Every structure is written in structure tokens, then in C-alpha cells.
Amino acid sequence: MRHPNWIITIIALFTFGLTLSAAYWQFQRADYKRTQESQYLSMQAEEVVNLNDTLDLLSDFEFRRVTAEGVFDDSRRMVLDNRIRRGQAGYEVLVPLLLVGSSDIILVNLGWIPRGREFGQLPNIDMPEGIVSVSGTAVKPGLGALELSDNTLDGDIWQNLDLERYRSLYSLDVLDYVIQGDAVNGVTDIFERTWATPSFGILKHFSYAGQWILFSLLTLFLYIYYGFIKQNETQEK
User: Fold this and answer.
1) Which of 86, 220, 221, 226 is the most buried (most CB within 10 A)?
2) Total Cβ atoms within 10 A of residue 224
3) What is the pTM of this model?
């Protein structure tokens, strides 16, 4: 009985092990995303956090429902570009809120507005000057758009919500969270404030894992068929 040579065997074993490792990694990612989804659902069900109470900066209140009172600083707003909704380009406008009774500052996402005919053209936004109340969900921002150059901002227009860059530019030590506003007292109602539920992509990782398992089984099949069955059939002839 003929056997495949050792080089083919090593290649087959390496490929088989690599594809199984990739499948295992995808299963691990699915478990991690499932944990995130569970955390999101549990946080949404928790009691609303009042950020004006004693704020423990070490606590994690991502995805929690929050309320806050403070004063907006519209001179340091951030306008996120290329936010697409229903196929239409627009902006999301974020403004820092100085919390009443503390020195803490948090960015508030006022919502989405469609882009005007010209880049950077924003409608008039009436901002209150006194103390306002805000309610919404606290989230930790991540980088979104692909940065194709170092020119990542143009005036108020930003390509990504980069808190480190924002802190450096305005010398404001904002918190690591952003409030996705549902209700913002005293701010014009031109904003759309419907926020999509986070997509954790659990099924995507299971799909990728299944593909890697198929690759590993295909590798095993080809190794057995051409290394043993086919060679011995040829030898018998």
C-alpha cells in the first residue's frame, strides 16, 4: 500500500491544523460577542444612572440609560461627517456638556441631520445657554470611517469620533463615554434621534467558523483520497 510522501503529509497537517485553529478563534469571537450582547441587554434593563450624582469614574456604565444636567459649550462642538441613514448622507452633532456640581465633561450626541447641498453646510442649531437636562444611552465610541489622509477634520467637521484627538485639540478632559441623546431639553428638534441597536455579529462568526471547518474537512478528504485511495488504485492498474 502506497502512502503520500512526508512533504505532502506535513503540508496537509499544517493546513488542517491552521483551518481548525481559525474555526476555534471564530467560535471564541462569537462567545465574546454573545457576552457583549448579554451585557448590553442587562445594562439596558438596569436603573437609570444620574451622572450628576457622585460619579465613580472606575465604574462601567456603557449601554446604561443615563440622565444628566449641565451646560453646553457649543464653541467646541464636533460634527461627524458621512453618517448614512436610509441612503442619505448626513452629520451627527456632538457637543460637550459640563455637568452641574462637578468638573466632569461628557460629549452629547444631539442626533442626525441630513447634509446640505454644500459640504459643511449645517442648518441653524438653536442651543440653550443655561442648564439643560439630557437623557439617553451611554456608549463608548470607536473609530468608524477609514482615514485616507492626515486631514481628518475640517473646521467642525470630523471623520471619526476620536476622543484622544478631541481632548488634545480643545484641552478638554471629556469622559470616555458619549451620551446618545433621546431627549435634549431646549435643543431644536431638527435632529433625528433614533439609534440602531448594536449589531454584535454573532451569526457572522459562526458562519466563518463553519467555512473554516469545511476547509479543514476538504483538506483531510483530499489528503486521504489522493494520498491513499488514488495512488493505490493507480498502482493496482
Assistant:
1) 220
2) 13
3) 0.69
